[in-house]
Amino acid sequence: MFGQTHDETKKLWCFEESTKLSEVTHTMSANHIHYAIVEAEDHSFRLLSQYDLVQFLLASENKEELKFAQKSLQELGLINPAGSPVRVSVESTQTALYAFRLMELTSHSSVPLVDPNTKGVISTMSASHLREIDTENLDLVMKPATRFLESIHALEPPVTCRESATVIEVLEKLVANNHRHMWVVDEKFQFVASVSFSDILKLVA
Question: Which end of the chain, N or C, is less packed with Cβ atoms under 10 Å?
Fold first, then answer.
């Protein structure tokens, strides 16, 4: 079921242990690959994620790779750059099924949930939430998105920032909250843009 919501789950990416970090970073960020397999010299395998790459780069001895990290998202042109995916959000009163379908159609792995009145971001709906669904609770997808989240886990607050946030602030906040996407909001907490690990790793690659 999860594989029906995102093309990434239909592919397997594999790197050799000797592959340069810059090549791995470029390939994963350019193709929006969240997970890949690394084959070691002894033919054992390890799972590598974008999260792992970011944690490695945030380590003090590797921060020279992040020379741009003190610049803001706006300065680096990360706010809705040309060629970026269409910005989408889902009103919290829409069904969870609607949100999952929208993610499939727009090739997004997550979307912000917004209040239908204020348009402010109130939470996040992710394709990974489908892991909580089985034949016993399938009817939950027909509930409003917020009710769905409350039923399977909790209605967690969104991970957000302003356009003036620096790259290092964004990365550290994403890692701390175990998220891959940051919702950029304005002074009214309304959705402005999405910034992901892929967007930032492209600057490293």
Answer: N
